[in-house]
């Protein structure tokens, strides 16, 4: 640990020079002192990305397999509900693979951030910008689907839209589950942005 | 400008010492070299915040004043549409003041970032985290309202929900305008996050 001691001495020297008004050196000693803390953030970022991938996958599978046919039919048509009957759910199923693809592609960058910590400013900046875009994208589809699910459950007397969940119970349950999984993905993306911001600050 | 020259000399000295393996000092010289560029970012951040405030205000006023009564009525009731008939639009009107309040409160922090550039890491970090939360919040309400507006325009034959925009044309136009204004706010928040990330990187 003689290297660590040498660094500590340099830090002290720099800190005293800062008091004389050379503040720009502030970032450098902090980075060395909190090396372990930063590696922890990078590893947590990686774990969070894997969890977000699982949540997004759950959301798509749940939504993609919603297909309920009622056991009775009239003379003219059979009652059937599937995700592709409602545009909001279709966008949900189309957008989720984009989010999953991004998460898979971002994992190598996350590993780069763990391995090459002090030099990983570029990848970190790229990740924070794309993560924020993903927050917006995931929230948009999850929230549009949530609005339609709410309508399917409760209906709307003013617009004369009737609730359809009394008939299509399985359909509604699955769709609600997918919306919840999607909001969990949103929360994970929010944490990823916060982590990246904290990590970026020390560079 | 003799102070600037002194700093430049120090920078060169540090850069040469970096080549000997003291990479952590990398952040410090960059910050001085790109001082003007960073002040530009801070000012653009301030302008963008003001524009987002205007966009959010437009969205709320447009949505809050949607109230259309049809010029005919039956024996039993008069046809009337207002934003508070649909929960998605109600959330929109409730959430927008929160966004506006945050924008107003964040403007002093933005000014702090302009004035005290090299030391403004704390405010910058606070702004990037809260901006990201606002991206999620604004997108959520805008997108839920968009899903309902789409339904009001097009209806849904599978769920037997009829389009109501043939009757309530004014209502639908105003609501669509509010949704567009809200998505403009989202785009501005996205830019704010990107700007903060770039500014944070140099610290």
UniProtKB/TrEMBL annotation, chains A, B:
Keyword annotations of the record: Cell membrane, Membrane, Transmembrane, Transmembrane helix
Transmembrane segments: 40-63, 91-115, 127-152, 178-200
Subcellular location: Cell membrane
Pfam families in UniProt: CASP_dom (PF04535)
GO CC annotation: plasma membrane
Membrane topology: Multi-pass membrane protein
Top-level taxonomic group: Eukaryota
Principal subcellular localization: membrane
Ranges for domain Casparian strip membrane protein: 39-187
The family this protein is said to belong to: Belongs to the Casparian strip membrane proteins (CASP) family.
Record's subunit section: Homodimer and heterodimers.
Name of the protein in question: CASP-like protein
Species the sequence originates in: Ilex paraguariensis (yerba mate)
């Amino acid at each position: 640990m003689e290297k660590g001691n040498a660094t500590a001495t340099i830090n002290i020297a720099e800190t005293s020079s800062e008091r004389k008004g050379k503040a720009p050196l502030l970032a450098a000693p902090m980075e060395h002192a909190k090396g372990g803390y930063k590696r922890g953030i990078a590893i947590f970022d990686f774990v969070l990305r894997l969890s977000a991938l699982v949540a997004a996958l759950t959301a798509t599978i749940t939504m993609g397999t919603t297909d309920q046919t009622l056991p009775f039919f009239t003379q003219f048509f059979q009652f059937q509900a599937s995700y592709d009957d409602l545009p909001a759910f279709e966008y949900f199923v189309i957008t989720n693979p984009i989010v999953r693809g991004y998460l898979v592609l971002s994992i190598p960058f996350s590993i780069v951030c763990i391995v090459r910590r002090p030099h990983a400013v570029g990848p970190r900046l790229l990740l924070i910008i794309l993560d924020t875009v993903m927050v917006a994208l995931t929230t948009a589809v999850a929230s549009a689907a949530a609005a339609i699910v709410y309508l399917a459950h409760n209906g709307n007397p003013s617009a004369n839209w009737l609730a359809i969940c009394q008939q299509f119970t399985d359909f509604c349950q699955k769709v609600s589950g997918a919306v919840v999984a999607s909001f969990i993905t949103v929360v994970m993306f929010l944490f990823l942005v916060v982590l990246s911001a904290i990590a970026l600050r020390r560079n």
